[in-house]
Amino acid sequence: MTGEDVSQWVGRSEEAEDTVTPGPLERFAAMLDYRDRRFRPGDVIPPLSHWLFFLPRTPQSELGPDGHARRGDFIPALPEHPRRMWAGSRFSFLKDIRVGDELRRVSRIAAVTPKTGASGSMVFVTVRHELSRRDDEGPALIDEHDIVYRSLGGTAATASPRRAERGNWRRELTPDAVMLFRYSALTFNGHRIHYDRDYARTVEGYPGLVVHGPLIATLLVDLIGRNAPGARVRHFSFRALSPLFDGASMSVNASPPGADGKMALWAANAEEGLAMTAEAVIEASR
Fold first, then answer.
1. CA 88, 205, 2: angle at the middle one, nearest 5?
2. Which own/partner pairs from 67-76 qualify as long-range (CB within 8 Å, at least 24 positions apart)?
3. Rounded to an integer, what is the distance from CA 239 to the centroid of its chain?
4. Which of 57, 111, 188, 195 is the most exposed, fewest CB within 10 Å of its CB?
5. How far apart are CA 245 and CA 37, in angstroms?
6. Per-block average pLDDT, block size 10, for the chain (286 residues)?
7. Cβ neighbours of residue 78 under 8 Å, at least 6 residues apart?
């Protein structure tokens, strides 16, 4: 367990501004294997594509050995816990965000929680982001996510003991190194476990390149759009259970929504081991 008083980080905040432009959205669509998808001013952006904006601007000299910004400014330093993984997120899509919108994001450390598990000592950091349009009152999107920081002493990855069923909605694909690189580039994510195979294997102990947790979540949300065109996602949450790696087939699955719009989604590895679970509430297009 970390000897640092991590409670001092709770409540720290920072602000940023950005403008929604079509270029990143069109490249995002290409990464998801859509052909010639165009975005015009006023178009509603896809759910989770807000991650393409408010990108980090850390100078190269201020990056840590894992490719992320050195911690200790906004995010706690946690030197005893160098492994970083996205554990889960919760989203409320309150108002449409459109191409051309000028946005403001307020981010706050909501919780820092040390824990001990089968893989060793870890610290969960919960960050709450509120995105709003500059000319509007109240948030358009609330994005709360949990990042887990782990020590190097435990096992890097363990297979999920839970088995996944085949969903009524299902898409199978094999994320490769190019797909992972393109998503890293779109989100300006320098974390080396997603593109530096030697680092992922020899330093952090993974068997291959790690598929981004947010990318898996994006593929789950995209499954909704492929099967229910025009539906609006109002709430979405996901929890990562076991990592996926490049070059191995995976699937994203879902049960169609009930009358209340609620639905279950999940991702599985090639052996049908459960990798991520998710829930969504959707609203049919009007």
1. 60
2. 67/190, 67/191, 67/192, 67/196, 68/190, 68/191, 74/12, 74/14, 74/107, 74/109, 75/9, 75/109, 75/125, 75/127, 75/147, 76/4, 76/6, 76/9, 76/109, 76/112, 76/123, 76/125
3. 10
4. 57
5. 28
6. 64 93 98 96 97 94 86 67 84 97 95 77 90 92 92 67 92 98 97 96 93 97 96 96 96 96 97 96 80
7. 2, 4, 6, 71, 123, 149
For residue 244, what are the contacts with CB-CB under 8 A and spacing of at least 6?
175, 210, 211, 216, 250, 267, 269, 275
Which residue do the tokens 């609203």 mark? 283
- HSE-CB at 228 with a 13 A cutoff on CA atoms is 23
Distance CA 176, CA 33 (A): 13
- Tokens 């997120």 label which residue? 89
C-alpha span between 215 and 42 (Å, rounded): 25
Look at residue 2 in the predicted model and tell me its pLDDT. 45
With both helix axes pointing from N to C terminus, report the angle between 22-31 and 177-186 in degrees, rounded to the nearest 10. Answer: 160
- What does pTM read for this prediction? 0.90
CA distances from 192 to 46, 185, 212, 247 (A): 27, 12, 11, 17
Residue 267 to residue 217: CA distance in whole angstroms: 9
Residue 117 CA to residue 141 CA, distance in Å, equals 32
Phi, psi of 29 (to 5 degrees): -65, -40
pLDDT of residue 156: 60
